[in-house]
């Protein structure tokens, strides 16, 4: 029989203490519903006039980098650059992540023993009348000088600390994903507000031009009235049309100011000190690579946050199960103790103690069972939340793909409507100048034309906003590789 030295036994025991085991289920990412392709990509619209999305190519499967630069608008780029620096909502989410990240280090600290040390000086006087007092002895006052250290360690035999670290890491990644989601939402909201405001600038430009055109019509009508060709009713109708359009022109400023104030808040500056000069909306909507549906699970920060929350809930089950096992604690202390300063730190003043304890809870009236079941229920809840988040994400993408497809078709139809309205007004104007019809026909044609032109501008703004919402629905170029490893 081979003999094993005591030191080998001690080393083996220490290795077992350090290795331990982790009770509870190991984490596996839950399955979630997906689809092989996007429904709205199955039948793309024929020759969309502006181009709004494209199916992914191998080298261009997802959005990359600062997505807002796709629009080629230097003013928008400048505003987006200020979001990360000044937006207070984003700052709050960032600090929340920092706090969750530090909690990982707090959890990891439980792997190691706690150490404490310090000197102590004490003057004591004992009662002369206490029991067992020796009469005539005068040493009931004395000094105590000590320099001692203590160490205590609870080895992670059952994986409670490991599961706690796993949970803290997952929670920190939840915060990181939520931070990315807040940033994506803020940037998308800024871009949407910006394009809404530029759409109003386009409407303002349209109404300004229309007011100038109606002033010319009013002058024409007044000249014809003075020449006896037109009636006073024609002049009144022309004047009414002009003033009504001026009122619409002014009214656009209300919504425009509100969008400008919203942009100021998003970039973290007081609304009273911020302004943007008017600039009509552009006409080029970028092509947006939508990729394949399975990629969405890795590209949406809200999906990542929900999935990481499932991991954290799974770790909590292990933490709850560890309570069924005994708590093992190792402790020791050592130092020097003397009644005289001169012999304080000497060999004979040395003292030490080593100890260990194991405590097993025998009866808790079902408390641990209830806590464990509660953890399992919370896990199932997070799995359901994750799957619902995935379903909502697919709906979000399909909604915006459908919006872009339908808006492309509506824009093409509206362009034809505007062309027809322009032709109708030209014919009515010619007939009015030739004395064939009254000004009422011109006024009706003007109203129809302006209404269709404003609708066309609204559709253009909606297309830009829908493209921003599609980018947000696709994750805005984010993916799970950006989650911190911790």
- Strand order across the largest sheet: 2-3-5-6
Number of structurally distinct domains:
1
Give the mean pLDDT: 88
Largest sheet: 4 strands, antiparallel
- Helix and strand element order: HHEHHEEHHEHHEEHH
Question: Can you characterise this structure?
Answer:
It contains ten helices and six strands. It starts with 5 loop residues before the first helix and ends in a 13-residue tail after the last helix. The protein has a single domain (21-86, 159-325, 371-482), classed as Outer membrane efflux proteins (OEP), CATH 1.20.1600.10. A four-stranded antiparallel sheet has the order 2-3-5-6, with no helix packed on it. It has a two-stranded parallel sheet with strand order 1-4. The chain has helices at residues 6-19, 39-42, 74-86, 88-108, 160-226, 232-266, 296-299, 301-322, 367-433, 439-473; strands at residues 53-54, 114-125, 141-153, 288-289, 327-338, 350-359. It is of the alpha+beta class. Helix 5 (160-226) packs antiparallel against helix 6. It is elongated and about 140 Å long.
In short:
The chain is of the alpha+beta class. The protein contains 10 helices and 6 strands, in the order ααβααββααβααββαα.
Task: Write a concise keyword list for the protein shown above.
single chain; alpha+beta; Outer membrane efflux proteins (OEP); 4-stranded antiparallel beta sheet; two-stranded parallel ribbon; disordered N terminus
Helix-strand layout with pairing:
Elements lengths: L5 H14 L19 H4 L10 E2 L19 H13 L1 H21 L5 E12 L15 E13 L6 H67 L5 H35 L21 E2 L6 H4 L1 H22 L4 E12 L11 E10 L7 H67 L5 H35 L13
Parallel strand pairs: 1-4
Antiparallel strand pairs: 2-3, 3-5, 5-6
Helix pairs in contact: 3-5, 4-5, 5-6, 5-8, 5-10, 6-10, 8-9, 9-10
